[in-house]
Amino acid sequence: MRGQVVEDSKDEESEVDVEVESEGEATKYRCVRCGRGYNRRDNRDRHTRLECGRPGRFRCPICPLSFTRKNNVTRHMARIHSRPSSESLSSSF
Q1: Which superkingdom is the protein from (predicted)?
Q2: Which residue from 12, 30, 48, 85 has the fewest beta carbons nearer than 10 Å?
Q3: pLDDT (tens digit per residue) in 30-83
């Protein structure tokens, strides 16, 4: 069913499951705060608990971007600045 809300046993807003089925896609769990979709409930719950609405804790040492996950900084460094993050931190010595 499209956009069916399934109430969980907990009353918290973040614990409401919104199951969405689209053509060619598996059932997703949507964050009720930002609408981001996940294929697994635990991934959605982690997003809600650690990421949603929070500023990034991991900052790029070269530019002003910040990320909620360390691996995203590493990927950003490799793609945008053409080097691994550890290389940029140790290259100044």
Answers
A1: Eukaryota
A2: 12
A3: 999 999 999 999 999 999 998 999 889 999 999 999 999 899 999 999 999 986
Measured between alpha carbons, how far is 19 from 8 in angstroms, rounded to an integer?
12
Q: Give the DSSP H or E segment for 89.
A: helix 85-90
Residue 9 pLDDT more than 50?
Answer: no
Q: How far apart are CA 65 and CA 5, in angstroms?
A: 35
Answer for the pair 76, 87: CB distance below 8 angstroms, yes or no. no
Helix runs in 30-81, H state only: 41-46, 70-80
Domain locations along the chain: 4-51, 58-90
20 neighbors 37 (Cβ within 8 angstroms): yes
Spatial contact of 49 and 42, defined as CB atoms under 8 Å apart: no
| Nearest by Cα to 73 from 85, 87, 89, 88 | 85
